[in-house]
Amino acid sequence: MNLTALNQSDVCQEYWCPERSVSLSVYVILYVAAAAVSLLTVCGNLLVIISVSHFKQLHTPANILILSLAVCDLLVGVFVMPLHLSWVIESCWISGSVMCSALKIVNFQATSVSVHTVALIAVDRFLALRSPFLYFEKISPTVICIATLFNWLFSLFYNFTLLFVNGNFADVTCPGICIAIIDGVSSLIDLIVVFLMPCTLIIILYTHVFVIAKKHATAIRALQVHNSTQSSKNRVSDKSERKAAILLGILVIVFLLCLLPYYICSLVIPYSDDDLFHVRDVTVMIFFLNSTINPIIYALFYPWFQKSLKLIFTFKMFNKDSSLMNVL
């Protein structure tokens, strides 16, 4: 997604595809690297999707949001990354107008859903720590599924409308490039809806989450140890919620670190500035790489994902009633 306000005349100037200036070996290496990154992204997120979908113990509100984020990342790995990396390597769009239109809607959709899903993760963790009794009473997997479905449908309607009213699905396209044409008003609306509002909410809520988690930790250390079983269960449950908040906080922080350079670059560097073209490309790559990094974060920090991977790679998930296996 490009937040710079663009008009057809700004980008559809005379454009020609430059001759390939690198050797054949470098050219092949670039394509192999692009394919490897895309494949890693696809495989990693497929494993997350299979794990959360298959094992019933993982059907929790927080994990359903992780599943939604993994589906977005899978779309990026399957569709957005290969096309965009091919464009960068070739220095020219060679996939035609239909694929360009498809890339625009998938790219906008994946970006929008990802940002809003991370915002929902922040809301989920805030409610779980701030009002745990209300959370366990009101926030069920069904409620989160409805919220996730609404997120996807709203994003699809919003992005299709945004692109359509700006003429991005017209038959006339800019030869050699694939850029979303967005006017000034639409660009401002998009900035508010997809960047400022959700990111502000994420930062505010996670600031509160870490403050609450710190208070809980201090309170627990201050309490005398009781032999009551119920008291012990409460402490374990509270500790579990704080740990979940911290782990998801890592996910959110990495997401924001990958997102911010892209949006800052889109805001301050006009598309017509050819001198900074490669800077803009680098920030786009960093943003796309977040889809590759997320499954790695799960593998490093989430015990349930590590156990799920062990069951998947040892083919135990194909056993009868494997969905009921303990992965926590």
Automatic annotation (TrEMBL):
It is found in: Cell membrane. Gene3D superfamilies: Rhodopsin 7-helix transmembrane proteins (1.20.1070.10). Residues 44-298 form the G-protein coupled receptors family 1 profile domain. The keyword Membrane applies. One of its GO terms (cellular component) is plasma membrane. One of its GO terms (molecular function) is trace-amine receptor activity. Keywords: Cell membrane, Disulfide bond, G-protein coupled receptor, Glycoprotein, Membrane, Receptor, Transducer, Transmembrane, Transmembrane helix. The chain crosses the membrane at residues 28-52, 64-85, 105-127, 139-158, 191-213, 244-264, 284-305. InterPro entries: GPCR_Rhodpsn (IPR000276), GPCR_Rhodpsn_7TM (IPR017452), TAAR (IPR050569). It holds the Pfam family 7tm_1. PROSITE patterns: G_PROTEIN_RECEP_F1_1, G_PROTEIN_RECEP_F1_2. It is a multi-pass membrane protein. Belongs to the G-protein coupled receptor 1 family. This is Trace amine-associated receptor 13c-like. It comes from Sinocyclocheilus grahami.
